């Protein structure tokens, strides 16, 4: 006599399958599977050449326009936060070859105002894969007004993209060799510090000052930002750091006011300016008997006035 097998009380029930799968969904699933299989086969047939990858990386980060976009810097409280950008990570992945990466929005909850997202990177040759799942609130935080709920779909999309880019950058870095990343960072830093070689240092300093003046930043604010050194003593490193700040402002990672706080005048400076002002004789008092006429003077010996 056959008895039924005992049920496993610790078994996890399987998630119910959807009752209906549309034709478009089925086609997309099949296409995604075929694309991954083809990518793995191509990666095995055409493995990366590390010497060529290093050569492409050196050529790329020796370009000043790419080197400047490779770093960010902004203020957080009293400290400075700096690092490499998502553009830096994507360029490394392009040079290293046979790496797939991306960001997906897994679920959007408009009622609670949040999105569940996943960022991932995959080395098709070594089969090393890194992924992270995270929640992005549909909220924009500012120092003045705090958190503001995002309702516009475009604002939600941009907020998700900005948060996803930071996670994607770390996923790409996790599947790349550390030595490859450090070499690229050194080359990009040297390119930023040396600047564009076709212009002398004085000309590049003048161009930098003119650029920031267009953003409403004075020379005094720039000199204070560069540790109090006058603009005539700036080095290539100073100009490189200012270029990174300019790119961070352009990308919206930091505002001009946050990076260059307005200069504050102390009470002692106001008192000193007041004491240095030249004294002037007291002005004549205003007419006392109306209508813009000074008081009439009485002629001596008579009762008449003139």
Can you walk through the features of this model?
- This protein is α+β, with helices and mostly antiparallel strands.
- Helices cover 46% and strands 17% of the residues.
- The chain contains 11 helices and 7 strands.
- It has helices spanning 23-45, 50-61, 64-68, 86-96, 153-175, 178-194, 201-214, 219-225, 236-250, 256-259, 267-276, and strands at residues 71-76, 79-84, 99-109, 114-123, 128-137, 139-142, 146-149.
- It has a 3-stranded antiparallel β-sheet, covered by helices on one side. Strands 1-2 form a two-stranded antiparallel sheet.
- Strand 3 (99-109) and strand 4 (114-123) form a beta hairpin.
- The model is unreliable at 288-306 (pLDDT under 50).
Summary of the model, kept short:
The chain is of the alpha+beta class and 306 residues long. Helix content is 46%, strand content 17%. The model is unreliable at 288-306 (pLDDT under 50).
What attributes characterize this protein structure?
11 helices, disordered C terminus, two-stranded antiparallel sheet, 7 strands, single chain
Task: Give the SSE layout.
Layout: H1 23-45, H2 50-61, H3 64-68, E1 71-76, E2 79-84, H4 86-96, E3 99-109, E4 114-123, E5 128-137, E6 139-142, E7 146-149, H5 153-175, H6 178-194, H7 201-214, H8 219-225, H9 236-250, H10 256-259, H11 267-276
Antiparallel strand pairs: 1-2, 3-4, 4-5, 6-7
Helix pairs in contact: 2-4, 2-6, 4-5, 6-9, 7-9
Count of DSSP-assigned helices:
11
**Secondary structure: number of strands:** 7
Cα distance, first to last residue?
Answer: 142 Å
Measured as a percent range, the helix fraction is: 40-55%
| Gyration radius, rounded | 33 Å
Shape: flat
